[in-house]
Amino acid sequence: INGAARGAIVMSNVFLASAFIFFASKEAGCLDEQDEPIEDCNNKVHGFTPGALVTNIAVISGLLSALLMPVIGAIVDYTSYRRTTGITAATLITIIQAIQIGSFSSTWYPMLILQAISGFLYQVLVLATYAYLPDIARVIGEATMTKHTSTFMMVQFSSQAIFLVVIIAVGFALNTDDASTARISQAINCVWIIICFFCGWYYLPERPASHQLPEGRSIVQQGFVQIWQTMKDININYKNSLRWYLISVVFAEATVNTFTTVSVVFLADQIGMNGTEIGIFYLVVLLSTLPGGLISSFVSNRLNPNHSMKLAMVTLLIVSYAGALTLQKDGFAQAGVWGIFVGICLGWFYPAENLFFSMCLPKGHEAELSGFFVYSTQILGWLPPLVFSILVNNNISQAYGLMVVGVFFIPAIGALSLTASWDEVLAEVGRLEK
After folding, report:
1. In this predicted structure, what is the pLDDT of residue 4?
2. In this structure, is the dihedral angle defined by the CA atoms of residues 320, 355, 150 and 295, taken in order, positive or negative?
3. Which residues on neighbouring strands pair with residue 37, listed in sequence order?
4. What's the distance, Cα to Cα, between the start and end of the chain in Å?
5. Secondary structure of the chain in the HEC alphabet?
6. pLDDT tens-digit map of 137-180
7. If pLDDT is split at 50, 70 and 90, which confidence band does 7 have?
């Protein structure tokens, strides 16, 4: 049920980002009297071009996550406030979503700042929720947990799809502009997540601390000490497998998350799509992840999850470059075709990444390394959007900015190439069947 709430939040952000670009462009003087974009407008607002300013949301939330997630992880592991942490994050997100219903030309900038904070709170919510998974797996068994994990993903997927269909339908029915579509999206999202969060956290129990805090050490200190100790343990004991996988995840997740973020800016600013059209694009992407999942399963079984994950990243890199180089202004139909291939690649990448992790996770270390995995996805989440923002703010084409973001896939692919053979990977983590 929490997954259903998260799915709606992710999709509501798409419409909100489109509205922020509209508001920023209008204040910068990049829209004419009919609110149509003015060609080659490089005006700035609050020191940034509209596209760069909106991209900075991901930069700020990424920096907050990289700096504070170790502390949040320590609170979840070393205190009995796991449930409280999740409920607090869910409540604050809901409050921000409700406030953002009031996104207008006079209020959009404070709403933009709130969105950066909400992005960080979303990661806190994910961490608090995922902390329950190892406990659930121990109770119901690994085989049953695998089935439930698939169910969790389908719930979030269905939530995203249904939410998109509802907002797109409302947008078409009422013929709303980007700002009105975003306000409607936020209003519906508020009702949606209040129900889902209440039901989800009502049934999740309080849990005692997983570990005892060492004497004389604060939660803040222990958070960073634990991260350092986990890194050393991985580097010594799993240097041919988990080490290279997690290094790859650091770059791959930063790239994929940035790609999905800057795509909204690229489609709105560069291609000229409105909020409803961008919603349709993401619906196409979402539906296309289904055949992508089938490809991921096929390639992982025929080869192995390592090769499957590398091929998924190579394919997504090619697809992103193809879109950046070929999509033109008002190319809505072409963007839809591009969305199909983007969706296939994302549907291929995430299952391969999760399968790799589940198969190279040493038994008895599930809880510790699951938390470290979540942190690994956030360490460099701020860097690719920062690079994109700097380029765009210096009047470099967003198409080239999108291509530079894709470069971060190269170290991710390189790290996976340094792992041992698949059988050696399984043997090192104690999961090779004899």
Report:
1. 84
2. positive
3. 31
4. 39
5. CHHHHHHHHHHHHHHHHHHHHHHHHHHHCCECCCCCECCCCCCCECCECHHHHHHHHHHHHHHHHHHHHHHHHHHHHHCCCHHHHHHHHHHHHHHHHHHHHHCCCCCHHHHHHHHHHHHHHHHHHHHHHHCCHHHHHHHHCHHHHHHHHHHHHHHHHHHHHHHHHHHHHHHHHHCCCHHHHHHHHHHHHHHHHHHHHHHHHHHCCCCCCCCCCCCCCCHHHHHHHHHHHHHHHHHHHCCCCHHHHHHHHHHHHHHHHHHHHHHHHHHHHHCCCCHHHHHHHHHHHHHHHHHHHHHHHHHHHHCCHHHHHHHHHHHHHHHHHHHHHHCCCCCHHHHHHHHHHHHHHHHHHHHHHHHHHHHCCCCCCHHHHHHHHHHHCCCCCCHHHHHHHHHHHCCCCHHHHHHHHHCCHHHHHHHHHCCCCHHHHHHHCCCCCC
6. 667 665 665 566 666 777 778 888 899 999 999 988 998 888 99
7. confident
